[in-house]
Amino acid sequence: MPTPTVDSEFSFELLVCRWAELGWPPTERGAVDASDTTRPDADGPPVIVSRQLGTQRRRWDTIVIECDPEGLAARREFGEREIDGDLLPVVRHAPADWAYYRDALPDPGYPWRYVREAIHRAAARGLVDKRKQGNRIEIRRKRPYPDWVERIVAVENKPDLNASAAAALSDQLEHDVETALADEVWLATGRTGERVEPALLRQFPVEAGVLTFDFGGSDRTGVDADAATVDWLPSELDVTAPTERFDATEKARRRRLLAERAYGKGWRSITETMRPDCRWFELERAGRGMVPVCGAKGRCQTQSECSSRCDSFEPEPPQWRTKGWPIDGGPGQGVRELLERRRERAREQ
Ligand code: SF4
């Protein structure tokens, strides 16, 4: 099958995410060779990859969470869903033995009734135990919440790095370096056959690394572990140092939340916002990755195009869901299940 044209930032971003699963960490000698099943034994930490995550002010295209293997195994015991910002203090500080929740948990800085709601939610999800002693709610942990995150890496994707794109990106990368919420910041761009223009590189902070990718060149059929070339190595940022915007405690809290959101969301959550139930929606293989393709448009559609507002949207015919289709629920449901299975497998690496 021919490689689909990587003709949008969206499909480039999906392939960068897939590459990160296969080939992280990038090194000067080339990316690590690993596959879905051998990844834990490969020369690199297990990684969780997600996309479009960040803070109110800054959203990153790709986030790579480098995980401690034992910590990640312990995190899996808490289930596959994100532990959100209200639940996390309860889960992290729940004591080994029963205790009144106000004695066990740090002062939240907001009314305790919200903490009680979080305790009920956490208990309903099986994250902590709770009981009532008289009028008092007591809590107990089920298991310690692990330190499962080793490093957080932020990647900004810009397949076509022309001068105006470089100028816009330089401010964002400056901001990332200054706030240092991530341990490393990278720019990922398309390979042109020439090295990235030194004049463009000069616009970026020297602390940001540069990766170039070739997903569709004549000698390549999509994404694999060797798709990236390191053009510039990044500097390690000091994530423990306070900055103008965040003190060290707030930074640590935000990093934990970011990691949890990445864990829960992954990068294949596109099926929750796109329309795989449209008759024109297809997944096309691109090497060891897949990208959505629209049969009506004859190209990779963007995430924002592929919604119920799309003029070309047509629901898949009912007969696809009943007769002759090998997956219960029709191809749309099949696509959703396929991507969900892959998302779970990525968490289990
Ligand atoms: S026609 Fe519209 S909704 Fe259907 S796959 Fe294409 S972009 Fe998505």
Provide the fold topology:
Elements: H1 9-23, E1 47-54, E2 59-67, H2 69-76, H3 87-93, E3 99-100, H4 101-104, H5 112-124, E4 128-133, E5 136-141, E6 149-158, H6 163-179, E7 184-190, H7 198-201, E8 209-213, E9 228-232, H8 248-265, E10 281-286, E11 289-294, H9 330-347
This protein binds iron/sulfur cluster (SF4).
Q: Which term fits the overall shape?
A: globular
Give helix and strand order, one letter per element, not per position.
Answer: HEEHHEHHEEEHEHEEHEEH
Regions with pLDDT < 50 over 5+ consecutive residues?
A: 29-41
Work out the radius of gyration: 22 Å
Global structural class: alpha+beta
Mean pLDDT across the residues is 86
Kindly give the count of domains: 3
- Largest sheet entry: 6 strands, mixed
- Count of helical segments? 9
Bound molecules: iron/sulfur cluster
Task: Please report the total strand number as a whole number.
Answer: 11
Strand order of the largest sheet: 1-2-6-7-8-9
Beta-strand percent range: 15-25%
Helix content: 25-40%
Distance between the termini: 29 Å
Region (Disordered): 28-48, 309-334
